Amino acid sequence: MPQIDELVLEPPFNVTRASHVVLNVRDLEVSKRFYTDLIGLVVSDEDASSVYLRGLEERGHHSLVLKKASDTHCARIGMRVCRDDDIYKAEDYFAAQGKETRIVEVPFQGLTLHVSDHVGVPLEFCASMDACERMLKNYQHYRGASAQRLDHYQLQTSDVRQAWSFYQPLGFRVSEYTWSQVEDNQHLWGVWLQRKGNPHDIVFTQGPGPRLHHFAYTLPDTNDMIRACDVAGALGYAPQLERGPGRHGISGALFVYFRDPDGHRIELFNTHYQHIDIEPALGWNLADPKRADQWGLPAQNKWFTEATPFANVPVIQPETPIDPPTLERFLALANDG
Ligand SMILES: [Fe+2]
């Protein structure tokens, strides 16, 4: 098993960033209203079964795909690779590991590969997308939170180290991590992994999983976070404001979390730092309350316990408990909310 700071600088293929998330929703119109009126995303295309949305600064056709379904699972999360050649290299790489791979046709996307990671997360590696107009300067179309671009995913998994062991050889770097003391060992509780040069593209924390805890969009300004809360209140989405605004310890971002009409969790945030130079990862003791929120505001219990399962992927409970003092502190913080 590699060490937390061990880097793969020449990975077998070139993943560039977190790209898009595909969510099952029960009512496309209801969900579309939430993501356009409150979050501020732009509809790139839609039909009777799907809505394709993008952030205001995105040229790629979609960063969020809503699929009409009778369930509310996450279908898949997407990672962008640099070129078609990277898809073929990825296919060879995963096939050599004995993983099931499939090149698939996906509307508005170029060459696309389906594979699951070591903890069962269904991934979609995509080499290109149809290009749309970048709406960055079309301020007349800004509404709600004015979400700019998809930045990252956070997932729960029963085995963080196992999840990390899939992404580390692909060149993902740990910017920050959390640990808890379990007997004589520092137990790895969470890893913040990145390819694009800021703190994270994908995060794994310990919990029943795999489940999608949230996906996150950037905002143009801090004011847009307050505006999002005001618009939520005005449009009747206030009960879906789950946490924040607040200031993370890890990554240092200002944040607010909403639950969409099907319970999928979206984070809106700003102010991530660069993580480009080779430098040691920053470790946090899980018992440090400033890890999650610098201002000390507690999260609601459901923020810790509820998440979106993946379609057709069983949810596994973690085997390693966190140490009792930390657990006590952790639950106290959660239940205060
Ligand atoms: Fe996040």
TrEMBL record:
Coiled coil: none annotated. GO terms for molecular function: 3,4-dihydroxyphenylacetate 2,3-dioxygenase activity; ferrous iron binding. Its cofactor is Fe(2+). Keywords: Aromatic hydrocarbons catabolism, Dioxygenase, Iron, Metal-binding, Oxidoreductase. Its EC number is 1.13.11.15. Residues 17-128, 149-271 form the VOC domain. It is an enzyme of class 1 (oxidoreductase). SUPFAM superfamilies: Glyoxalase/Bleomycin resistance protein/Dihydroxybiphenyl dioxygenase. Pfam families: Glyoxalase (PF00903). NCBIfam families: HpaD. Belongs to the extradiol ring-cleavage dioxygenase family. This is 3,4-dihydroxyphenylacetate 2,3-dioxygenase. The gene is hpaD.
